[in-house]
Design goal:
The protein is of the alpha+beta class and 272 residues long. The chain has one domain (6-255): Roll (2,3-Dihydroxybiphenyl 1,2-Dioxygenase, domain 1). Helices cover 17% and strands 36% of the residues. It has helices spanning 6-9, 29-39, 85-95, 151-160, 212-220; strands at residues 16-23, 43-44, 56-59, 62-65, 76-81, 105-108, 113-116, 122-126, 138-146, 166-171, 174-181, 185-191, 203-208, 224-229, 232-239, 246-255. The chain has an eight-stranded mixed sheet. The protein has an eight-stranded mixed sheet with strand order 6-7-8-5-9-12-11-10, with helices on one face. The chain is globular, with a radius of gyration of 19 Å.
């Protein structure tokens, strides 16, 4: 069999085709509206969850799901791509008086706008560029803090169990596992010193082409937290396949391609 050249294999996307949403609870829907819709300029999905106790926020082909409960803060940061960083700053300035009692803050870095939500979630907002495969609006990555030495085991889990393309890399901020999802998304798990963060049950939802493989492995190893229901299952323990050790925890909502929400077209308004 012929061996594919590196420039061709770079186009492979692996088993996870899309990270659709990040679900994290918020304590106040009005403040979430002011931050996500009015401040950032994102779009509330007009078709799903239109009550007063939850909100789905469209970001290109991706979403935030924001049910009302206690606040949840991601142990890391969320990357966003949006077309106009200057306009975001102006909108945030406009809503700042009504969110002055919260943790909302922002400042410019060399290549992104660093933004803190009312409850402490960190966002890094980038303008469209080659870095994220010309994404115009979306969630290109989420970076989580991981314990020292965990990156290799995390990478092996996503490679061997979830069927993703992975790598362990080192940059000026240290060592991290890079997990590629679909065409232009990824999860990053960056090793950090100090005590590990307390597990928080926010979750990511992903669509996989090979549904039975990860499901069978996780069921046989007793790692499912919810069995198949409505074309999806859930797990939270990321285990090193070689040792069985839990190296990180992150709840995953794993959907197959028969899920009725797969590739549903999302409405995205022009914030201006």
């Amino acid at each position: 069999m012929a061996v594919a050249s590196p420039d061709v294999t770079a186009l492979d996307v692996g088993n996870v085709l899309l990270m659709e949403h990040l679900n994290m609870t918020v304590p106040d829907q009005l403040e979430a509206t002011l931050f996500y819709l009015v401040g950032l300029g994102l779009t509330r999905d007009p078709y799903n969850t239109v009550g007063v106790d939850n909100m789905h926020v469209n970001v290109g082909e991706n979403q935030f799901h924001l049910p009302t409960r206690g606040e949840q803060v991601v142990n890391g940061h969320v990357g966003l791509v949006m077309p106009d960083l200057d306009a975001i700053e102006k909108r945030l300035e406009a809503v700042k008086p009504r969110l002055a009692h919260t943790k909302v803050a922002w400042h410019r870095e060399t290549d992104h706008l660093a933004v803190t939500c009312p409850w402490g979630n960190q966002f890094r907002i980038f303008a469209p560029s080659d870095q994220f495969d010309h994404m115009r609006l979306g969630i290109p990555y989420i970076e989580f803090r991981a314990k020292p030495g965990a990156a290799a085991g995390i990478a092996k889990f996503y490679d061997q169990v979830m069927g993703c393309t992975t790598a362990v890399e080192t940059d000026t901020d240290g060592t991290f596992a890079r997990v590629k999802l679909g065409r232009n998304q990824e999860l990053r798990f960056r090793e950090t010193s100090g005590d590990p963060d307390t597990y928080v049950p926010y979750h990511v939802a992903v669509y996989v082409a090979n549904f039975s493989g990860p499901y069978t492995y996780l069921k046989e190893h007793g790692k499912l937290t919810e069995d198949i229901r409505n074309h999806q299952f859930r797990f939270q323990a990321i285990v090193d396949p070689d040792t069985g050790e839990t190296v990180h925890e992150l709840e995953h909502e794993v959907r197959n391609l028969h899920h009725p929400q797969f590739r549903r077209v999302l409405v995205n308004r022009e914030a201006a």
